[in-house]
Amino acid sequence: MPTISIFYGIIIRMYCSPGEHNPPHFHAYYQKYKAIININKCEITGGNLPPRQTKLVLAWAEIHKEDLLADWKLASEGQLPFNIEPLK
């Protein structure tokens, strides 16, 4: 699962496999926490993160929604997604 962005100790990854299950999503990791984030809704659909990291990840996802959907398309076709600019 390639890393597509890292910011404030949060690692963002996306699976690369043909036919990856919908809805479009990515995985966020922070210390011992992990969460699955729905790209279209910009909400956590599985797992959890601490409140501060949740706000950061969801804000980043909203800003980069188009990039994330483009990465999802690549990943679901078995191609490597491109890196996305971290939150600054």
Outline of the structure:
The protein has 88 residues and is an alpha+beta fold.
Strand content: 25-35%
Biggest sheet statistics: 5 strands, antiparallel
Rg, nearest Å: 12 Å
If you average the pLDDT, what whole number results? 93
The helix-and-strand class reads alpha+beta
> What's the number of helices?
2
Please state the overall shape, judged from the principal axes of the Cα atoms: globular
Oligomerization state: single chain
Largest beta sheet: strand ordering: 1-2-3-4-5
Topology pattern, helix = H, strand = E: EEEEEHH
Distance between the termini: 24 Å
Strand runs, count? 5
What is the helix content? 25-40%
Question: Could you list the spans in which at least 5 consecutive residues all have pLDDT below 50?
Answer: none
Give an overview of the whole structure.
- The protein has 2 helices and 5 strands; from the N terminus they run E-E-E-E-E-H-H.
- With 88 residues, the chain is α+β, with helices and mostly antiparallel strands.
- A hairpin with a 4-residue loop joins strand 4 (33-38) and strand 5 (43-48).
Key attributes of the depicted protein:
2 helices; alpha+beta
Topology:
Blueprint: E1 3-7, E2 10-13, E3 25-30, E4 33-38, E5 43-48, H1 51-63, H2 65-76
Antiparallel strand pairs: 1-2, 2-3, 3-4, 4-5
